[in-house]
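ARCHIVE CARD
Drawer: 12
Card no.: 0347
Subject: one protein chain, sequence and derived structure
Cross-reference: see card 0346
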Amino acid sequence: MIIVDDGSDEPIEDLFSMYEKDKITFLRHSQNRGKGAAIISGTAKAKELGFSSVLSMDGDGQHLASEAHKLIEICEGDEIIIGARNFDLEHVPNGSKFGRWFSNMWACWDTGFEISDSLSGYRIYPISILELPIKTSRYDWEMEVIVRHADAGGVIKEVVIECYYPTPEERVSHFKKFDDTMSIVWVHVPILAYKWSKAILNSFMFFKKS
């Protein structure tokens, strides 16, 4: 297990016993660098340790470790596997459901894969993501990595997982609904512009040859 402490006030490592520490590799960013940067650090460490893939899990308590086997069982190699959360639960606000639908629309459009939970933080990543030309480092990184992976010819799969969705009083999240949603959407703008330009150019060349 690799735990990435992305600039917390109190080092996460201090919360574990000596017995627990023996089973965990801790990485710490002295300052908050963003979710994407944390996953990249963890993946780079996994590569260093000789692994070919990593399973990432958010630290907000929403994901259940018992569901990990569902992702692992369908992983066949250089693929991104997304754990699509079952949102048929109490306490899930309509805003979250709309945000997921809106994000999924862009993700499906830009990757060519059917994706029903593009915002899920429960995923398997191949270490090949370290080679992708990703420019983001925060919540928008999770969208860019699947787009870049698909653009490089990679496969994206999903499997439905159960999750725990806390009440508003229990919920802990640094996700800024408007700002972070817009940054996720903005990931697609330059990529789509490039794809459309390329498609138009290819159509023109085909017409010219005909």
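Annotation on reverse: The longest helix spans residues 177-209. The chain has six helices and six strands.
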